[in-house]
Amino acid sequence: MNKQPFVSRRDLLQRAGCGLGMLGLAGLLRDDGLLEAVPAASDAADGVVSPLAAAPPHSVARAKRVIWIFINGGPSPVDTWNYRPELTKWHGRSIREFDPEFSDTTGFFKDAVGQLMQSPFRFTPRGECGLMVPEIFPCLGRHADQLAVIRSGYTESNNHSPALFAMNTGFPRMGFPCVGSWVTYGLGSDSANLPGFVVMSDPRGRGLPKGGASNWSSGFLPGVYQGTYLSPQGPPIDNLVRPDGVTQTAQRNGLDLLNELNGLHLRQYAADTDLAARIESFELAFRMQSAAPEALDIAAEPRHIQELYGIGNSLCDHFARQCLTARRLVERGVRFVQIYSGGMENQRSWDGHSDIEGNHRQFAGETDQPVAGLLSDLAARGLLDETLVIWCGEFGRLPIAQIADKPGRDHNPHNFCAWLAGGGVRGGVSYGSSDELGYKSVEDRVHLNDLHATILHLLGISHERLTYKYNGRRFRLTDVAGQVIQAILA
Questions:
Q1: What are residue 446's DSSP bridge partners?
Q2: Each residue's pLDDT tens digit in the chain (490 positions)?
Q3: What's 332's domain CATH number?
């Protein structure tokens, strides 16, 4: 029997009163060639097409999924992946001897500007490519020939919140969709039972990154594309366990009724993407009650795999568990995983305003073995070739000392470094360069729009074609800029 939608008195009057007028308007628009054919809405009773259904890319994809290790707080390039031996010769001198136009406002603490400071870490060449790797990354150094290191990144903001928003969304203010949301909007998810986009943050009580959940927001995209946040303490996902007294059958029946009512409304307003996303979110939550506990159960992994990541090592156990969780998620079809190393600010993250040596040694120690283990494990399972792994923060740090009891380094938007590995990336290469002191990017400069364009390209998405109309304008992740970094592609 055909089910008829409910018609309210208001709907009846509206349809009767406006019907003739709409017919007249349609005729005028057709005469002027302004009337476009509208595809028929799918029957909600026959099932709503999921907004997270896997979609074909624009071109051949080299990567199917992404794991982004977000180095929260801003790692220092000259102490990580941008080896600058000339900095040793300039140690203790004023940066104005090198650049008379240096501004005290480049960093964040203009009253604590010190002298140029060499790296406290010893660098050695690693791999066949001879990449200079600091002593704080002994495990990642073994993967030197798999990394494409970008040493000429730059951004606009020297403040954490807008810089985080920019690195995640392309815009230095909140309200815009992040990379993970754009990717799942463009490609959907390969899993019907897990979210397309998952986020993990520091589990050691050091807080969220500046700006909090806005960093993994879907912005003006439908809410189904926002990151699913895994809580670092307690149950990873709220309401994952069915309440006592509620059977699976009762929950399924209630959800079916809700879907039927929502479907009736959706048939009338087929263009309401928020409603379609809401319907899908209810269904996904139901399916996750069975799938998510298994996906998050790292105890099911063999002991040698857990040890590969560093589980059991008190320094890095927390991050090791998150990296292993990331591998289990992408293995089960999750499209985009982002893990934040470090919390809110200063010594709780890579934000080394004081004691840059102690700060970076601490956080490198927490992440080196887990990330190296992730690369090894993905490669052993045949997943690295189709998984893009990214190591990047929101900006860099100055090559000068920030005055403190133990000197640190202040923010620097003019030069940051990053590396990519895996799906479609040419390993063992370094791209771009800064000046000899690591102050500004000068050769083959890479804006964050270029980084975003490259990520999308490796996933088979044209950054110029992936758009969403909002407030009368078509937006994209790269706004009106961005060039794919061809030199790092395999």
A1: 153
A2: 444 455 566 565 555 555 545 445 544 444 444 443 333 233 333 455 678 889 999 999 999 999 999 999 999 999 999 999 999 999 999 999 999 999 888 887 888 999 999 999 999 999 999 999 999 999 999 999 999 999 999 999 999 999 999 999 999 999 999 999 999 999 999 988 899 999 999 988 899 999 999 999 999 999 889 999 998 887 777 656 667 666 767 656 666 676 677 777 667 766 656 666 666 666 565 566 667 789 999 999 999 999 999 999 999 999 999 999 999 999 999 999 999 999 987 889 999 999 999 999 999 999 999 999 999 999 999 999 999 999 999 999 999 999 999 999 999 999 999 999 999 999 999 999 999 999 999 999 999 999 999 999 999 999 999 999 999 999 999 999 999 999 999 9
A3: 3.40.720
Q: What is the CA radius of gyration of the chain?
A: 25
- Cα 365 versus chain centre, distance: 22
Helix (H, G, I), strand (E, B) or coil at 91: coil
Asked whether the beta carbons of 195 and 334 are under 8 A apart, the reply is yes
Residue 135 lies in a domain: yes
Q: Among 488, 371, 428, 489, which residue's Cα sits nearest to residue 126?
A: 428
Q: What is the Cα 317 distance to its own chain's centre? A: 22
Residues 285 and 347 in one domain: no
Number of domains in the chain: 2
CA distance linking residue 120 with residue 269, whole number of Å: 62
Q: State which residues form the domain around 115.
A: 65-232+296-488
Cα–Cα nearest to 191, from 294, 41, 273? 294
DSSP 8-state symbol, 408: B
Residues 6+ apart with CB under 8 A from 159: 108, 411
Give, rounded to a whole angstrom, the gap between the first and last alpha carbons of the chain. 57
Residues 6 or more apart whose CB falls under 8 angstroms from that of 302 comprise: none
Tokens representing 314 are: 């008190």
Q: Cite the beta strand spans of 62-112 per DSSP E.
A: 65-71
| One domain for residues 198 and 227 | yes
Look at the chain and count its residues. Answer: 490
Last residue of a domain, one of 245, 275, 294: 294
Q: Are residues 272 and 367 in the same domain?
A: no
Which residue, 142, 139, 166, is CA-closest to 153? 166
Are residues 434 and 166 in contact, defined by beta-carbon separation less than 8 angstroms?
no
Assigned domain for 10 exists: no
